[in-house]
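Field reference: sequence -> structure
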Amino acid sequence: MESKRGSECPLHGIGVRPDYLVGCRLEQVVASWHLYESEAPSGPLDVWLIDSEAVATRITTGSDWCLIVETSSPFEGYDMAESGRIKVAPISGETPFADHLGETVLAVSEETAPDSGRIALEITFGSGRVRCDTWSGGLRLSSK
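Structure field:
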């Protein structure tokens, strides 16, 4: 793990230390998606990992391409008129976290950059790992 100072974003602060997730059981994952006309959504904008104690951990990207990790409840979806809409709903297989529902987090690690703080988070479960990082300002999730 990096020091607290290393994962602090100059614009968004440190958020929460993700190591509190160790030992938590992943019960539900909620995601937000930008929907525009008939285009397929590209990756989630945010994901909320909800544990067995109903604590929701939001993972998203900041305006400076940092990775934000904070405790917050999922928000309601909303309409942006001609710019589309934001849909917020429980996932049904659309993210790598779906493979780990019901599992306990065994470890977390993060990567940082000097100018933007946290840029990646890897969450380890008994059956594999999920990497969350920023890519061109967007949230990218992948399985390992």
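Note: The beta strands are 26-35, 46-51, 56-61, 67-71, 78-79, 85-90, 107-113, 117-125, 128-135, 138-143.
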